[in-house]
Each structure stands twice: as structure tokens, then as C-alpha cells.
């Protein structure tokens, strides 16, 4: 596997040359995406799924939230390339895949300078085949406690590798038709030298809050207290094991 970089006018692009080539910059253009996906309009914060060279890919444009987001939308104050959100997430995905963790394959990232002091960025990853978010699935059907335990043990795997997910919620967890879980959307996440128990517990608590919030919004949301207990028991059992035993 090789990763290459190039500069085009004000843009810097990094890409996986086993999936795309230097012509991949067109994939970041809204007109191309609108013409080659099911999206008539590429909106900020919305994942765009499209096919390219026989692969299913996902485009994500970084954007600001809150009041600042309304003012400057997709641009950020300038920082060295390696510190930009798009470059950090691309390289974090690379590192996690090298650790054997189930995350999407990073395909390409593009960072555009917006003079005098700003930038905007976008990321393309490979889509996880036959997968849906945990949110989508639980709106339709329940999962058995074995699946919840499997998810708890998986989260412990990430924590054993010192991975901190900044927004672990039900929409950032994928489940495949074969029963495999993946974590996605590591914007603002980090791989630390050592992940504290406090931060690990905060990740788990964040997931529970998201599930409870969805349950309140949707009366048919399939989530029960015994599901959470199954997840938490499996997580505690796995996190208390030595890393080489926990996977």
C-alpha cells in the first residue's frame, strides 16, 4: 500500500494509490459528486456515497458547528497541514487499520488554502459493504444481547489501543449484514500514548446518552436496559484483561 501527495494550485491532496490515482482531485468537486452520486446537491455535513472504479466510496466535507459555523461554514483558521482536521483524521484511520481495528479505509483527503488565513477540507473513505448505522437498525429491529456484548468488547479493543473517539454515538457505529461492527467518523479523535480510564468511561457514557436520546425521540427505538447491561459487562470484562488477551 502506498500513499502519495501532490499540490494543485492552492490545494494539497493525499491519496491511496492502490485505490485512486492523481486524477482523484475531481472527486472532491461538488459538480462531479452531484453528477456521479444520488445527491442532487452536496450539502455541508452530509455524507455523499458514490461509486468509482468499481468501489463504493464516501465523501465527507468538514464544517464548523454552532454560531461560528453559520458565519464561516466550511473554512478554518490556517494551521500547518499536519494539524488540519482532515489530515489528522486521514492519518488516524491509516494508523488504526495498521493496528487491526475495524474502521473505514482512507482513500483520499484534500485541504484547500483559503487566503489569507483559512482552509477547508474533505475526506474520502471506502464504504463498509452491506452496512448500516446502529441508529438505522435500532429504529427497525432489536439486537440480541450477544450483539450488544460484541459491541462492548469491540469498544474495549479500541481503548486498549489508546484510541479516543471524540463523538462515539449510535450513528457513528456501523453493523454489517454478517454481524461485524465498525466505528466511523474520527474527526477530533486521537490515538494517545495512554488513554485514561476517565476518558475511556466518558466514551462509553457518550454512547449511552446518544441511545437514550434516540429512545426518547422515537417510541419504536429498540433499546432496553438489559441491552446496555450486556454491552457494559462485556466492555468491563474486556477492558480489565491484558491487551494481548483482549485483542
UniProtKB/TrEMBL annotation:
E.C. no: 2.7.1.166
Entry's Gene Ontology molecular function annotations: kinase activity
Superkingdom classification of source: Bacteria
Pathway(s) annotated for this protein in UniProt: Bacterial outer membrane biogenesis; LPS core biosynthesis
Active site, per annotation: 167
Family recorded in the similarity comment: Belongs to the protein kinase superfamily. KdkA/RfaP family.
Protein name per UniProt: 3-deoxy-D-manno-octulosonic acid kinase
Organism lineage: Bacteria, Pseudomonadati, Pseudomonadota, Gammaproteobacteria, Cellvibrionales
